[in-house]
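Homework help board

Subject: predicted structure for assignment chain

Our instructor gave us this sequence and asked us to write out the predicted structure in token form, then describe one feature. I got the tokens but I'm not sure how to describe them. Can anyone check?
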Amino acid sequence: MFTLEQVMVKNSVNVSSITTIKDVSQILANGALHALPVADDFKLVELLP
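My token output:
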């Protein structure tokens, strides 16, 4: 059985709701990401697949 600490991402990548679509597409294209969290004021707004 794994612990949360073992499976958590240490250096997460996220964007805010004012991030442009162009920037989001570049982030997704350059990284091995399965989803991209959108957060405003430290609150999760959306999860982009």
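Reply (TA_rk): Your tokens look well-formed. For the description, you could write something like this. The two ends are 27 Å apart (CA to CA). That's the kind of observation they're looking for.
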